[in-house]
Fold these 2 entries.
Entry 1:
Amino acid sequence: MMLPLVDKYRPVSRSQLIGNEAPINGLYLFLKNWQKNKSKPGALLLGPPGCGKTSGVYAIANDLGFVVTEFNASDTRNKSVIREKLGSNAEFSNFMGENIRKVILMDEIDGIAGNEDRGGIAELIKIFKKSNYPIICTANDPESDKITQIKKHLRIFNFERLDEYEIFSILTKICQKEAHAISEEIIDKIAVSCAGDLRAAINELSSQISGTEKIILEKRDKMEVYSTILNNLFNSKSLILASKSLNNVPSDYSRLLLFIFDECYNQYKTQEEVKTAYQQIALADLTYSRIIKTQQWGLLKYYFAFLSSGLFLTKQHDYHNKIRKLDNLPSSFISRGIANRKLSTANQIAERVTKHLHQSKRRFIYDDFELFSKIILGKGGAEIAAWLNLDDGLLENLHRLNPSSKILNNIEEAREKIGKNRLIESTINHDEVQLLKNLFSSEEINNEPVINAQEEHPIKSDDKNNTQASLEDFFG
Amino acid sequence: MNYNIMWVEKYRPKKIEDIIGHEETKTRLKGFISSNSLPHLLFAGPPGTGKTSAVIALAREIFNESSISGNLLELNASDDRGIDVIRNQVKDFARILPIDNAPFKIISLDEADALTSAAQHALRRTMEKYVNTSRFVLLCNYPSKIIEPIQSRCAFFRFSQLNSKDIFGKLSQIASLEKVDIIEEAIETIIEISNGDLRKAINILQATAAMGGRVTPKIVYQTAGSVEKKEVSKLVSYSLNQNYKQIKDTLHELLFNRGISPAEILRHLFNELFEIELSNDGKLLLIQNIAEVDYRITEGASADIQLFSLFLSLGTLN
């Protein structure tokens, strides 16, 4: 049977879910420990479309062995229907025995229509109080007045948009499994343009695979999202509005900061204002780095406070420069990417060479790597690379730092030269090992050491090779 | 060895005698060797002053060439700083007898001040227990981070900053052996940039030589990824003139394209403090700001954002 890709690759376990780790884990624990009358009757999952709310519920339920009964927008959900269908489902215990557990999913609760579904919400709240099973509701719009009543009865979990890297990785996996060769460029385009909506992205991908539609992606342009956010932020008329302006930020928070960093000095008039504004940004940046380091995501509210309220309060004049549609990545984004790539190259190389250079990886990476790469890429560098046994992959990464280097041309010759030298050196060593062996075998075990430790006798090393081997284990 | 290797290794001293400076330390270490008894050692001092070289030279003088690798264990505390390293790797090494009839093994722990205090306590016991088979050498920058009980078990040696004359001698010696075409001012520039760190100085020398031409102060600045004073002055004048975009672009250029460390920029700014036209109060505030930003960056904040904010605030200090 040909399933749509969206359904074919719907995750069946928590481990397959991408992104939104905090709410997913929260929901998992909530459901796992759910007890009638002790826990809240259910949960409300808030978040934009396609970020994994429904998939999350199914995957978690599957992990916990729950059965999901779903009511969605396609069902009529007025008072009597909800009472009959949901009520009967919620109140009856399962005859099959206590160990079969169930969870009721009310999808798209903000889609309960005003007229046709009259009284539906009120009935739902009544059922919350009686239900034998947890009821999970999902909604897109956290501000919708339809859910304000429901909110206070339920545990709330906020889901975020997925970022393009997460989406990119999922799309790539699907392509591999479907054995379709779609260029990374197109996948990348889809990932960026879907603005965090995974469902839209997968649908886009399947139309690419079937080749029926051309990509029409403008509508879900992610940059649009950011320019709207920034306009709202800098144009806020009150502190409340300013603090709310960042409510719907895509989950790649650090990128928001970089966009603000790029735009901010156009938004303030006096030097004093600009200075204070960037102090707020610097504080937000500091907060974010602390969050990443300590994983204290509770601090995130201060990050947003510095960027929203902080920037608003900095402003002395009522003044707004409209932000044109952002059409580029933040200016430092690419350079940072390069810097990161460099760091990872440095890490890999440190792994290999620090033993030869008698220093720690950390010190090599931060103090010596810049110079080291210049030495390797410069005159005579090939021999050093060969001496350190750097492989081709690492050399190619290094070569990117200075494409004019001739390292890749010279390396083979250097390896040969060093190989020959090593051979001579190792034959010398070999003779010595032999000599040592003879020495040991003639002396036997006459010089047993005296150590009083009872549980750990010193081990007598039989020959040098043995010690060598275990030493290599130590160095790992 | 008739091929090119890293000069820091090639010219690492083979004997205690060859180490630059530290006369008193060398005399004492040689005394240990001639009496064939060695206590546990604690070497403290800034990077590139010869601590690691002293350990290796020590090992070379005590052990035969062929048995060095079997009798010397070098661990970088910052790589695996946990207590497990002490418990397992060090212990396993320490309890095996030295090979080749050496009197004992040497275990060198680099950056010992990065060891957690729990690991240091574990170490203390190990040091006593295996004293028949092993000696420990602890290397650190700040001895105050080593716990008392360990300090009291070690003979303490301070490795102070090398003086410029010694570094100059060593660099010119290497330059002439390697046939580097370098002018005297360039060597002085290297010494200035490397700030008393001989390891860094030799690396800079090799990197400039790898450029393949005559080495001048300008080449040194370019290769060492070091900011020239005037670039920091430029940043200062941009900030006094509120040239936001230029501050941003210059910072990006320095940090990302040229790979200059933020600490380097801060160091120059700090050194130039008294030449900047600011009121006394402004200077005082600037010192506070520099200190704060330096700390934030070591804490993990983004260098470009923090530095940008610093330079903006500099513009308003008057």
Note: Strands of chain A lie at 42-46, 66-71, 101-106, 135-139, 155-158.
Entry 2:
Amino acid sequence: MIDLIYLTVLLPLIGFAINGLLGPKIKNEKVIGVIGSGAVGISFLISLGIFFELLGKPAAERHFIVNLFQWIKVDYLNIPIGYQVDPLSILMALVVTGVGFVIHVYSIGYMHGDKGFWRFFAYLNLFIFAMMNLILADNFVLLFLGWEGVGLCSYLLIGFWYDRKFENSTTADAAKKAFVVNRIGDFGFLIGMFIIYLTFNSLRFEEVFAQVKLGGIPESTFNMIALFLFIGATGKSAQIPLYVWLPDAMAGPTPVSALIHAATMVTAGVYMVARTSVIYASAPTIMMVVAVVGLLTAIFAASIGLVQNDIKKVLAYSTVSQLGYMFLAMGVGAFTAGIFHVMTHAFFKALLFLAAGSVIHGMHEEQNIQKYGGLKKYMPVTYLTFLTGAIAISGIPPFSGFFSKDEILWYSYANAGFAFWLVGAITAMLTAFYMFRLYSLTFEGEGRFDHHHVHPHESPKVMTVPLIVLAILSVIGGFIGIPEIFSGSGGNQIKNWLDPVFKPANSLLAKHGAHSHFEEILLMAVSVAAAAGAIYFARFVYLKRKDIAESASLKFPGLYRLLFNKYLIDEAYDKAIISPIVKVSDGFLWKFTDVKIIDGLVNKTASLIESFASQIRKMQTGVAQFYAVIMVLGIVIAFFWIMASL
Amino acid sequence: METSTILNYLLFVPLAGALLLMVFPSANKNAIRYFGLFTSLVTFIISLLVYYSFDSGVYGFDKFQFEFKYSWISDLSISYYVGVDGLSLILVLLTTFLTPLTLLSTWNSIQIKVKEFTFFMLVLEMGMIGVFISLDLFLFYVFWEAMLIPMYFIIGIWGGERRIYASVKFFIYTMFGSLLMLVAIIWLAVYASSSTGYFTTNLLELYKVSPALGLDIQTYLFFAFALSFAIKVPLFPLHTWLPDAHVEAPTAGSVILAGVLLKMGTYGLVRFCLPLFPQASVEYAGWISLLAVIGVIYGALVAMVQKDMKKLVAYSSVSHLGFVVLGIFAFTPEGMQGAIIQMINHGLSTGALFLLVGFIYERTHTRQIADYGGIAAVVPVYSAVMLIVALSSIGLPGLNGFIGEFLILIGAFKSPVLSNWMYAIVAASGVIFAAVYLLWMYQRIFFGPVKKLELRGLTDMNGKELFIMVTLIIFIVWIGVYPTTFLQMTDKYSSALVNSILSVNGIIIR
């Protein structure tokens, strides 16, 4: 079965080819939808089969490489198209194909009637193909192929409705921004890859990691590699300073936001750090950088989420913030907890986005939560599932988000100190607050929409069933990672599962002093209480005392505007970087240097020669006597010359 | 020496085809077109035959196959001497592959003087093939110069409004460089006579004697050759003829210019400058790489702000060819292989871009980006094809451009000669700008609401156009997914050349 891993990559590619080439001819939405969803569904089943096969093997033997063919070979650089099956990659494969399949099915309903229906499914399949390459690759270059491939699909899908406006610009602007910002990150990734090749003479994970374990390489080299790779991660996973593309990515259809910009692609950076954990563990300084960037991104994005009014925008900033948590986990050496959060977040954030899509669908494309209200009686399934997701992300036990988030907070405290825990816990509080602000304004209270023209309705089954599936996963998904203080030693399933992958890294990391169970339970209780308090407060403010929110924004107008305008980071980037580059390229490089200086010099030379020639041309008078005089003069000079030199 | 006559047919068939065209009545345009296409297809088939019997296992940068030698000017030991190795063969294949596609693309766009046009195209093809297979410097020089003439006419007769200015500029610019090369060739031939006893322009003999020259002499000769090649590449800051030539040239001219002619510059650097003057090449590698890297960034930034599609693509060539030169002067097998494959990639991708610009120009008669907008919905096939080609030019993994850029950058990184990561790091940032200028152009042309009423009437690609593009895309994907087919042609050659040059310079790697 393991040998069939390539099918999980190939099937979505075939789906892409069929829908991409024949889609306009097939026309029938059902057929297109079934081909697209089916390709991913079968991939999921194969991944599941492989997962059980791995489960049946002893932990130490759960590692296989399936080589397909030689890709790039020059000298001793030898890059294969090869896939790696191990606990980490198969877990990710299950999440990607599983959540991916659910979202494909949902899209059949959501995209119904769109003129680009076939195109949408072709792109989605292409995305799954690239994502599977990313997570299954057994070397850096193939990972990079997936890495750029998902970026391309993200570009295509953000700009899917390419003729529409988006905020002050267009969807095409948002798409280009995503691609270019990602490319800045990719540039870092490339450099990191080159230094790896220079250091280890290989780009295959197995060979590189084996040499890392042998030691003997200076920490400064690891620092450089880890830093450049992390630059790549900040691009793909929307961390400071390259997070700016993700909020704009909401210009794409909502299933895309759920699949690519919440559940899977944006976690690629986290996956990459986890995959190279052995390198990061050898670069403790950079691990600290990762932790700090993650933490700052988490609280920064959460603060913006507090005041946004677009339902998808709130979720987008929430995603940036949750990704920050995952990097915090990576940075403090809690690799398992980070991947655990990737998984639970995939469930509840995909759920929240799809539920938001259902709301938007039922509200005639309205996305402003100030124009919602009281929707729970119109769309009961969406309401209940959204509420489930909101509780899960807020970290209320026993929902899935609680387990993964708590694990990260605990390791932040244990490995990095109280300050990390505190900021993390405050972020959790903010998260609970903005989620329930969103929830309250949308589903509870009085409807603030125009009752004559807007008739909210529940979405069809093809959309609500995926919501229910994801809601169930959001509830129970955390049980595979119950902390050992409750489940006993060895009771944390996901930890046991991923242990062989992270063992080399963990053995390199410094051991921290033991902490008491009391501390762990106390901190857990405090963070849960804070989240619960935030939920209560949000409901109180937005359902009973809206004046509090209004007066707060009036009392601190500067702060409110700063948050509402997202700290004006986009504007700053534009002023400080983008427009200077364009101006210099246009005015200085092109119109001045190229046209005036370089080409000017060329043309000047030509015209100098021309004017010189037109001067000497005057000697050709055509008067024979003049030529004779010159000739005699020449002979005389030559004569004296020869005489003088004798 | 094993002799083979097959290469002669590569030169003879297009020439004979061109001459035979003379008997065709000018009015029968289609017969002329079919005959031109037929001739170029026969040439392509011959080149495929060469490929099939070519042995890529031969190690060496001075080992040629299918050699043919015929004494030409016996007093000066100048001979008609041709042969191929992996480097020449892959470029010959590029030439014979692009020529029929280009001729096919002119079916509707060239309506005046069809006979003359086809004649010049075939003569041009012969000249280009001649450049790549000559093993005698004198013969090489003849082809090198002769090629200017048909190109001069193609731009000058079938070009745009400022075609005369552009063609004269093209001619003089390149001519200027060549003259110094001629002086250097003669100097070398005279110098060779001191050891061989006779004046010779035989490349293989010069390979043996020239590296023994002192660094000072090598430097003069190196730059005499390199200047001429650098203009052709074009290397920053010698590139200003290119945007003018491209903008004014007819589509077919641009395709051949970008696809093949520019490669003659990089080919010349690899074939002549490096092995003839190994010390000088290494000595000045840093400076040339610096210009190459400047070209990568400069070309990309200037491309970004262009308003004319063709000019944008022209400046992007400056950027891409900068990569190629960087790969050559990294003196690593990876860099060299990357440079060679990138020459092919640029031929395919930029050729395809020029063709695509030509297709739409034929319909709208404007190349200004601002005149378009929102045509993705009107011409879906065209926009999909353009996207694939743009992505290949951007260097998306899975398509051809990535293989070249990746190998070049990795080669520049581990270069024992450049010994500074900054070259590679700065060049790598070019991948960001490539995405900016191409996607921005793409967005302005295809996305948004349809900008003008008349754009609604645009017709999508016809069968012939689609055939041309699909053919190119097959290779774009092929090189991206399974580059081994192409890399192995020059694998041994690149290693041999790099190792030889490094050992002459006493540089030991690992």
Note: The mean pLDDT of chain A is 89.
